[in-house]
């Protein structure tokens, strides 16, 4: 498989040299670099795509993902914002923007962004988990509980929601609810009580 990737890389690289403004060639080459473990080369190509095609939201989004994977969250934030400026309902870009805000410590902006996602897509369990975790970290147990209950309602197999609810109920000294939450978790795992 490694030889096939090298061959594809060489073929696409030759094509890129021959047709430097060809957007599809850059995409294929960037994908090949990313899959072969060379994300730095993929970042360069996505930036080149954006030089020639500034309105290209897919390249901007993929660039943001790569930057976030490299822990370059401020640059990722800029990239995701560019996507959202072109497509205000791009919930994947909004989600990754919110996560990037978390990573740079801008919790208020992260919460605002998660809440904006829920206005667009109100049944997004992963957003409820992230938002609930932020509220839980602030000891805002009522808002955290609401988020995690919504998570379980949408996807009862997101086990971290059950665990978080147990933590909340222990903090609120509501042991009966804690036991019920743990029982539900055991049912999801097909484990006996």
Structural class: mainly alpha
**Major β-sheet profile:** none
Count the DSSP helices: 11
Beta fraction = under 5%
Distance between the termini: 47 Å
Return the string of H and E elements.
HHHHHHHHHHH
**Low-pLDDT segments:** none
The overall pLDDT, averaged over residues, is 90
Q: Can you walk me through this structure?
A:
The chain is mostly helical and 193 residues long. The chain contains eleven helices and no strands. Helix 3 packs antiparallel against helix 4 (57-69), helix 4 (57-69) packs antiparallel against helix 5 (73-86) and helix 6 (91-103) packs antiparallel against helix 7. The radius of gyration is 21 Å and the shape is elongated. The relative contact order is 0.06.
List keywords for this structure.
elongated, mainly alpha, 193 residues, 11 helices
């Amino acid at each position: 498989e490694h030889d096939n990737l090298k061959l594809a890389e060489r073929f696409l690289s030759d094509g890129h040299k021959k047709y430097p403004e060809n957007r599809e060639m850059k995409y294929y080459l960037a994908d090949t670099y990313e899959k072969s473990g060379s994300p730095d080369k993929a970042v360069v190509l996505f930036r080149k795509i954006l030089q020639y095609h500034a309105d290209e939201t897919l390249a901007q989004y993929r660039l943001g993902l790569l930057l976030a994977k490299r822990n370059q969250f401020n640059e990722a934030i800029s990239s995701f914002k560019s996507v959202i400026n072109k497509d205000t309902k791009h919930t994947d870009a909004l989600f990754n923007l919110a996560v990037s805000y978390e990573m740079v410590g801008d919790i208020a902006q992260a919460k605002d962004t998660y809440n904006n996602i829920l206005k667009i897509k109100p049944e997004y369990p992963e957003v409820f988990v992230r938002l609930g975790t932020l509220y839980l970290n602030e000891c805002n147990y009522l808002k955290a509980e609401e988020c995690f209950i919504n998570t379980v309602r949408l996807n009862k197999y997101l086990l971290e929601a059950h665990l978080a609810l147990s933590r909340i109920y222990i903090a609120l000294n509501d042991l009966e609810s804690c036991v019920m939450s743990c029982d539900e978790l055991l049912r999801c795992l097909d484990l006996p009580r």
